[in-house]
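Practice problem: predict the structure.
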Amino acid sequence: MTTTSVPAGVDATGAPASGRPRATGWTTFRALLLRDLTVLDKGLGEFLANTIIQPLMLAFVFTYVFPNIGQAVGGTEGAAKFSTLLVGGMVAQSVIFQGLFRVALPMGRELDITNELEDRVMAPTTVTTIALEKVAAGALQGLFAGLVVFPVAAFVPATPVFLSVNWPVLLTITPLACTTSAALGLVVGSRFEPRSVPMLASFLALPLAFFGAIFYPWDALTPIPWLKALVLVNPLVYMSEGFRAALTVGVPHMPLLPIYGVLIGSTVLLTVAGTRSFRARVLS
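Answer:
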C-alpha cells in the first residue's frame, strides 16, 4: 500500500480541512494576487529591465540599424511595412515570454528552495484557487510586457510605423494571449523538476521565437508547405497573427476564426492540465 503526504490545512482533494475559518475563494484569490503584485512592485526595476530589453533590441536592430545600413531585412523600400508587421510579433513575443517565464521559473524556486507554495496551500482555500492565481498573476505581467512594446515601436524605428487599431480584436486577443502564456508557464513549472525548468525554458525560447511568425506573416511560409504546417503547433504563431489583425491594415494575417479557436482551446486545455499537475505536485 502506498501513502501520500498531504500538507497540513488541506484534505486529499485540495480543499481546506474542516475546523478552520473558510474565506471565500475570491477573497483568498484576491489576497494572493495582491501579494504577488506587491512583490513585483518591489522588484519593478528588475522586471522592467527584463521586459524591455528584448523588444528594444529587436526594434533597434531590425527597424533602426538595418534600414540605416541598407540591409535587406527592413532596409529596402519595404522597410516601413516590415517595421509595421514586426510590432504585432514583438507584442506577442513579449507577452508569451513574460507569461511563461514569470510563472514557470519562480515556481521551481518556490517548490524546491523556499517552500513558499507549501505555506500557500495552508491558506483556507483550494489548491485550484492557488493555481488559478498563478495564471492570473502571470497573465497580468504578460499584459504589462505587451504594453511596453508600444513606446519602443513609437520611438526606435528609423522608418514610420503605421498602426490601425481594431479595438474589438485587440481587447479580445490580448487576454487570451496573456492567459494562454501564463497557463503554459503553469504546465512547465509544475510538470518538470525545479532544477530542469530554467534549462527547459531556455530550450523553448528559440523555437518559439524563430518559428512564431514574429518576423514574418504566417502566410509567407507558403513556399515551404511542410514548415507552414509544422509551426501551427506553436501558440506564438496565433498570438503574432492575432496582434497583426488587431494592430495593422494591409499586412497579411491568418483568418480570425482559427486564431480565436486555438487561443481559446489552448487557454482552457493548458489551464486544466496545469491545474491538475500543480495539484498533484503540491499534494505529493
